[in-house]
Specification:
Blueprint (H helix, E strand, L loop, with lengths): L1 H18 L7 E4 L12 E13 L10 E5 L7 E6 L11 E10 L17 E11 L1
Length: 133
């Protein structure tokens, strides 16, 4: 009898480990095309398992979408990245995602002489993307 109880407890434990104990969020992993994405820029930081929000910064006339990352552990608590390979179907305001990606350096980016050049977001190549539903 003790063996059956022990086996039942082990089975339940293994089931919880295999299926996971997460909240109501479900995850759909997206396949990404990153073969030609920012390949000429150096990676300066890698994000791993990071939560962000897709946004176009409230500008409905612009088709540029950013990933807003709230990171209270840094001096700049909110960071913006421009993903070069975000699939079109995920370009929607306030879409919550979890991602891995390589933040790229802006050093060596060419702009016209005399042109005002303001960096508001660093380019990022996404390597994995999950949508939080």
């Amino acid at each position: 009898m003790k063996i059956n109880s022990l086996l039942a407890a082990i089975t339940v434990g293994i089931s919880l480990i295999v299926t996971g104990c997460n909240d109501s969020d479900s995850w759909v992993e997206e396949e990404l095309n990153n073969t030609t994405c920012n390949s000429n820029l150096a990676t300066i930081l890698s994000y791993n398992n990071t939560i962000g929000v897709v946004t176009n910064a409230g500008n409905s006339n612009d088709d540029t979408f950013y990933i807003r990352i709230n990171n209270p552990d840094t001096l700049q608590a909110t960071e913006y990245c421009i993903p070069c390979n975000l699939p079109d179907k995920y370009k929607m305001e306030n879409l919550r995602i979890r991602f891995n990606g390589d933040l790229k350096s802006m050093a060596g980016v060419i702009h016209e002489p005399g042109e005002e050049f303001l960096i508001i977001a660093q380019p990022i190549t996404l390597t994995r993307l999950w949508v939080i539903e």
